[in-house]
From TrEMBL:
Its main location: cytoplasm. GO terms for cellular component: cytoplasm. GO terms for molecular function: peptidyl-prolyl cis-trans isomerase activity; protein folding chaperone; ribosome binding. Its EC number is 5.2.1.8. It is found in: Cytoplasm. This is Trigger factor. Pfam families: FKBP_C, Trigger_C, Trigger_N. It comes from Candidatus Macondimonas diazotrophica. One of its GO terms (biological process) is 'de novo' cotranslational protein folding.
């Protein structure tokens, strides 16, 4: 049963106790609480089943004695909720989380009085981005970029032939090895018929260098000191002795740039010329996406530098929970295991995300920006493009309110970036494709 609480029968006052913290003292007259209790008890009368009385015939005094304490507790809980909501509205506050209730008086016969401690959203005064300069990478895909990808394809299709000569960089060695530290075995110390391409960086450089010049059938001892920062604490900083037996030295042969190579790479028509075109198109698409991501990051950095705002702790906690859950999923952990991850590692990213969310939200509000339907369609199309049933998945997305809110949020953020790019001074800076992608990979690593 919902209770109505008339605002004129309650009093509220707000005390500012921090940048965002507010203490709201609320007082509801005892007679108002008593009236609510009495109304609810009387509403129980026709339905009350009390031993010794026909249903609905028990006197109010008996009903009060039977149900009074329970009804009063229910009424007090609802008066707390209703009066808090009224006080928030009356004081014009926008809470950023649930309140902490400090009860002063909840006893029968006394005014219901309490203090609600709550954080509110910050007031944001937007600062103009005009007169600020941002550098935007300008990338032209050159022949060297296409050739580099072709080289990678040739490496993937490489084959090896056994040779009777000393091993060189680029050769593949098949070997058995067994290592000891002070005569004792350690974790991962041995392997059989292990194939390693020299120069590929899969082994520590000192180990690979010791294998250069080895021949098929040779047995050699290799002393190897593991780096101090080696991932395995068991061997870090220690010196191991490896006994190695080389079974085979094989020379790498790369396929020629022919139509047959293009076919192996998935190009069924047009041969190597078409493969080159597709590589260029893919690199251009990657570059466009990376440039867009980097200029967006710079816009967000500018917004943060111009707006130093306090962030509600409740929103920070929610964002830390979300980041921990995302990392748990990437690590293959159960969602409930995310609370085992150290929360402090997410603090800075959570602070950034929440602050940007508040600033961007204020921009969207003041500029009255609405999600562009065509952009929403484009995002959905990109999400379902590689699915077996793209139309069905797109329909499912459109029917899921939560998913659509996330997609619209992405679109609105992009629209904000475009709006701000029109106001700042954008300077295009010539950048190589390799440098662009190196930055992109570095940024992705930081997000992890």
């Amino acid at each position: 049963m919902n209770l109505s609480l008339e605002k004129e029968r309650m009093q509220s006052a707000v005390e500012v106790t921090g940048a965002l913290e507010r203490r709201i003292r609320v007082q509801v007259p005892a007679q108002e609480v008593d009236r609510q209790v009495e109304d609810r008890l009387r509403s129980l009368g026709p339905r009350a089943k009390i031993k010794g009385f026909r249903p609905g015939k028990a006197p109010i005094s008996v009903i009060r004695r039977q149900y009074g304490d329970q009804v009063r507790q229910e009424v007090v809980e609802e008066v707390l909720r209703t009066s808090y909501a009224n006080a928030i509205q009356e004081q014009g506050l926008q809470p950023a989380g649930s309140p902490q209730i400090e009860a002063e008086s909840l006893a029968p016969g006394a005014d219901l009085a309490y203090t609600a401690v709550v954080e509110v959203y910050p007031q944001i005064e937007l600062v103009s981005v005009e007169s600020h300069k941002l550098e935007r990478p300008q990338v032209t895909i050159g022949e060297e970029d296409v050739e580099r990808v072709l080289g990678q394809i040739r490496e993937q299709q490489a084959h090896f032939h056994a040779v009777e000569r000393p091993a060189q960089s680029g050769d593949r060695i098949k070997m058995d090895f067994e290592g000891t530290i002070d005569g004792e075995a350690f974790s991962g110390n041995r392997g059989e018929s292990v194939e390693i391409e020299l120069g590929a960086g899969r082994l520590l450089a000192d180990f690979e260098n010791a294998l250069l010049g080895a021949t098929s059938g040779q047995t050699l001892d290799i002393d190897l000191t593991f780096p101090e920062d080696y991932p395995s604490a068991e061997v870090a900083g220690k010196t191991a002795v490896f006994k190695v037996t080389v079974h085979e030295v094989a020379e790498k042969h790369l396929p020629e740039l022919t139509d047959e190579l293009a076919l192996q790479a998935g190009v069924t028509e047009g041969g190597i010329a078409t493969l080159r075109e597709r590589i260029r198109e893919r690199l251009e698409a990657q570059a466009e996406q990376a440039v867009r991501a980097q200029i967006k990051e710079k816009v967000m950095d500018l917004l943060l530098s111009l707006h130093d705002i306090p962030v509600p702790s409740a929103l920070l906690e929610q964002e830390v929970d979300r980041l921990a859950s995302e990392m748990a999923q990437r690590m293959g952990l159960q969602t409930q295991q995310s609370n085992q991850l150290p929360r402090e590692i997410f603090a800075d990213r959570a602070q950034r995300r929440v602050a940007l969310g508040l600033i961007v939200g204020e921009l969207i509000k003041q500029e009255a920006i609405q999600p562009d339907p065509s952009r929403v369609d484009s995002v959905i199309e990109s999400l379902v493009a590689n699915h077996e049933q793209p139309d069905a998945l797109a329909q499912a997305y459109r029917g899921n309110r939560e998913v659509m809110q996330r997609i619209q949020g992405i679109v609105l953020e992009d629209q904000v970036v475009d709006l701000l790019l029109e106001k700042v001074d954008v300077v295009d800076v010539a950048t190589s494709f390799e440098e662009l992608m190196s930055r992109a990979n570095s940024a992705a690593g930081e997000e992890m």
